[in-house]
Amino acid sequence: MNIDLKGKTALITGSSQGIGLEIAKKLYEHGCKIAINGRNEKRLNKIKKTLKQAIVLKGDVTKEQDAKKIIKKFIKVYKNIDILVCNVGSGKSSKKRIDLMEWRRFFELNFWSTLNILNYANKYLIKSNSSVICISSICGIEHVPNAPIPYSVAKSALNSYIKNQSKIFGKFNVRINAIAPGNIGFEGSVWQKKMSKFPLQTKKYIKENVPLNNLGKPSDVSNLVIYLASKYAKFISGSIFVVDGGQVRNI
User: How confident is the model at residue 191 (pLDDT cuts 50, 70, 90)?
Assistant: First the structure.
């Protein structure tokens, strides 16, 4: 299957590291005119040395005004949005007791980060018959032991939003889907740290819970993003695609 996205414009939020960075690289390799986003300008500028044609859009999409500025700058450069990847999210928490402030933080990161950017991107997405891909989590599909409850609930809300929003977007030939990764390992990831600190326990957990008995890689997610952004997925919308090595148990 030869996927050609040459000349397509793509905005990838949360693309300064990990899964988001891998998605940005993959879209760039497939000929997209991309914009990378994150809060760390130094890290973004370092990435730009490799992805030379990319533009850097520093900003925090959990903040409405930042999301507005990001879209405004993107449109000023590229005029339209063909592909939007909403990747900002995190299940990390340093608190032993989850209070209301932590609930709000999880929702800002894992739900409002997508709604904020879509709120200002909507009118441009409609004009371009765009493809929107949101990075969710298997925690939003079923209970995963030790995952913070606010994280799971926020991702579940995101999945529900995608299903409902697809009905509205469909009228304008805009597709919106989600990818729900399982355990993905990369430099600086939670799973890399677990594997480093508790190798035996982590390997035991993976063996008992993941039929393919391994951690996933960011490329396992980015490859699916490329497909969903392409013409080959033109009849797919409102779906949640699980990439977890077989971990999810529901049918």
Answer: confident
Per-residue pLDDT tens over the stretch 113-152:
999 999 999 999 999 999 999 999 999 999 998 899 999 9
**83-86, strands of its sheet edge to edge:** 55-58, 33-38, 9-12, 83-86, 131-135, 175-181, 240-243
Of 10, 7, 61, the C-alpha closest to 228 is: 10
* Residue bearing the bigger pLDDT, 196 or 30: 30
Residue appearing with tokens 């890689």 = 217
Which residues are the active-site residues? 151
Q: Which of 2-11, 18-27, 86-95, 136-145 has the least mean pLDDT? A: 86-95
Nearest to 133 by CA among 92, 109, 169: 169
Q: Where are the domains of the chain?
A: 9-186+217-243
Which pLDDT belongs to residue 221?
A: 98
Among 57, 39, 47, smallest CA distance to 121 is for 57
Q: Which option is the CATH number for 9-186+217-243: 3.40.50.620, 3.40.640.10, 3.40.50.720, 3.40.220.10?
A: 3.40.50.720
| Phi, psi values for residue 12, rounded to 5° | -120, 110
